[in-house]
Design brief:
TIM Barrel; 47% helix
């Protein structure tokens, strides 16, 4: 009972911290500019946001990313978010299912997602180090279409009760990715992913990576908040801004795996920029969690998504893109610190290719 009460307290504190703390730092998308197409001849009703993630068709590139599970409050939130995803045809990832694997009494805080969204695209979630049996059980529990394996080393190190041993994690991921019967996503949690790290994940057999860049929810800040710690400024800004991480990863593994952009993506402008840089889908968690815990959450969530979709469609008209795939071929200028980052890391050619799209030669 003690372990369960500790876990429930931790989950409650995580939700409270997301609501109490602002996103940490800048995501870098302020350095990314989409070029307008003055000669665009696209009607708004001719725009399609339909896209495909790991073989599953979804109505929108917006993905409800992993958040919570394991408590009564989590059950309510997961049910609410599953209904939201079902209404709009969004893919949805559940929070870490470790609690359900250890304690059958909290299984329904996860299975409610499939109950509320019986035909939708649902993504299971286990932590790094999960073995094949645990991973397959997590998938089967919610009849998931794919699996996230989250890599939260920074969170573990700042969590008082967190893990301190990480040796052999990649071997474990390789076994999972090559054994379970659904596609696997390696997901970073908040500190951003480098191109070489993404390549190591792909070499383990994953089908997609979720970059989890800095600029959004910071689990370093969350775990410090839980412990009543004041963290140094260097820790407040730790990690790779999402736009820089996305550029690295797209250039390094974009032809080998699908890429989910996440980390401080707040609106339709950020969504459009991430897609144009090469993302397959865009994961959002913190903004959605805050809406889900306010009064009239259904209305707030629907209104928020309507605005994101309106902005995205408007940008697509203005850039001459009828589909998400066409948006990925529109010219993109990258400047400022993000340009400096990409050039210093050897990704200048990627940046120039984005800038020169559509130029007749």
């Amino acid at each position: 009972m003690g372990e369960r009460s500790d876990r429930e307290r931790r989950k409650h504190e995580h939700i409270a911290a997301v609501n109490a703390l602002a996103d940490q730092g800048a995501s870098g998308f302020e350095d990314v500019t989409l070029l307008p197409e003055s000669a665009s001849e696209i009607d708004v009703d001719g725009i399609s946001l339909t896209t495909e993630l790991l073989g599953c068709e979804i109505n929108s590139p917006v993905l409800v990313n992993a958040m919570t599970g394991g408590t009564d409050e989590s059950r309510r939130i997961n049910g609410l978010l599953a209904e939201f995803a079902a209404r709009h045809g969004l893919a949805m990832a559940v929070g870490s299912q470790t609690a359900a694997l250890k304690d059958p009494s909290v299984v329904d805080t996860y299975t409610i997602v499939r109950e509320k969204n019986p035909s939708g695209v649902i993504i299971a979630n286990v932590g790094m180090g999960a073995d094949v049996k645990a991973a397959q059980t997590a998938v089967d529990l919610i009849d998931a279409d794919m699996l996230q394996v989250h890599w939260n080393t920074a969170q573990e190190l700042f969590m008082a009760e967190g893990d301190r041993h990480f040796r052999g994690m990649l071997d474990g991921l390789k076994q999972v990715a090559n054994s379970i019967h659904v596609p696997t996503i390696a997901k970073e949690v908040g500190q951003g992913m480098t191109g070489p790290a993404a390549l190591r994940f792909v070499e383990c057999g994953v089908h997609a990576v979720d970059i989890g860049g800095a600029g959004g929810t910071s689990f370093i800040a969350i775990e410090s908040w839980r412990r009543g710690m004041d963290i140094e400024r260097d820790w407040q800004t730790w990690g790779i801004p999402t736009a820089s991480s996305l550029g690295e990863v797209c250039d390094s593994v974009g032809s080998l795996a699908e890429i989910v952009a996440s980390g401080g993506i707040r609106n339709g402008h950020d969504v459009a920029k991430a897609l144009a840089m090469g993302a397959t889908a865009v994961g959002i968690a913190g903004s959605i969690m805050r809406l889900a815990t306010q009064e009239e959450p259904e209305r707030r969530l629907d209104s928020w998504l309507e605005n994101v979709h309106w902005t995205l469609k408007t940008i697509m008209v203005l850039t001459g893109a009828r589909t998400v795939n066409e948006l990925r071929e529109r010219p993109v200028m990258i400047s400022g610190p993000t340009r400096n980052w990409l050039d210093a890391r050897g990704h200048e050619e990627y940046r120039l290719v984005l800038a020169r799209r559509g130029i007749e030669r």
